[in-house]
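Most newcomers find our protein records easier to grasp once they have seen one. A learned vocabulary of local backbone shapes supplies the integers on the structure line. An example says more than a description, so a record of this kind follows:
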Amino acid sequence: MKKFVFLGPSLSLDEAKQLCPSAIFLPPARCGDILEVLKLAPSHLLLIDGFFEAVPAVWHKEILFVMTKNVIVMGASSMGALRASELHPFGMQGLGQVAEWYSDGTITRDDEVAVLHLNAEHHYSSLTEPLVNIRSTLNVKSSVFQSLQELPYRERFWKENMPAVNQKALDAIEALNILNHLSEAEGVARWGKAVTEPLNFNNNEKLSYTLYFKGLHQQVFCRAPTLPAEALSKEQRLLTQTRLFAPCYRELVKLAKMIYACDLLKAHLDLKGTLTNKLLPPSIRWPSLNYPEWLDAIVSAQIPYKAFLHRYFQQQQFMPSMAELKRKLTAWQKEEYLPTAESVMAWLRTHDYSQEAFEHALIFETLFDYMIDRGNIALSSENNDLPCNDYFAQAFVLSNGKKYLKALGVDMRRKNITFLREHQQDVGLLNALDFYRNEDLLTFLTSCE
């Protein structure tokens, strides 16, 4: 059993680890984080805290999607209690008093659990008092409670002589105790069916996926891991290091999106036959700058997938709008420093590229950007069973990323590690070299053999 907990200001991390030592603790959840945990093969998820306002909050659809993958999801205290009350009919279990208040309609406002808090470096310490704590402390008809209820959550400071009841912490403690003692056999007897069985639709019911959710799904499964390093395996931590090499990372994400799209569309064409074709017709190769060795390996790995997508675009008779074509052409001109039509024609002559081949390439790359890179392939896909494969990891393996990443690290270590160590204390110099200030980079370089 792999248990994951999203925790922030509701309870201190040290106390939470004592209550449930078998769990892996993550920062407050934001949109996409619950989907991201699927890469780690969880059996149980406990949502306590989640971000909102500054970043998109956890979507209901991603929680439902996770539950369809035989993951038991529970919520308590804060964002978890709110989402559990909303998704209780589908099997998400709310734990604690706050979840009960939301479920029975005692409270309906989401700002009752909201707090202003510090960042991870300061352990997400609360600066304001959540209204649910005040509700547990005072009579709801009292003038103090009524006045605090009217204030925005950012201005709710507790100034009374007596301490407020920390209802959110009490609920978090209860939920962690349940999670700690939960097992396959014991759970049914002690905590009931809802806590131990994941979501299971009837035969005539399906979880429908909106275009927005499909876009989020593609984004999450086609990028390097974003969860804290302590929650990741050694191989997954290696994937996060690809972000240090931006050009390679961008192309890896593109390759991952191609694999993702081909996976969704494999019912339309013979994917296996297409991928044995190693050569993409020269007329749709998009002109670009010369690539370093790893970039060249990534682009080579893209070729069979591009060939498949080219066939699919032709079959569906897709054609980009003039506005999309102009936007793509303008972006390419800026990348290649070609401001005029004359400079573009001169570039084509220099690179032995016909105007017809260039137009063909422009159409294909515009379609690729619109359909694949921006996630609109979901419009064409009838696949309602979205996969949970780590497509970024597949792209990394296909491009022999481990070999090239290690080679880049060794080379950078040889050239720069001495420099980095000598100048770590030179604040002025380090401020000027943002790239070298990255702690992940320094860790990566020192780990290279």
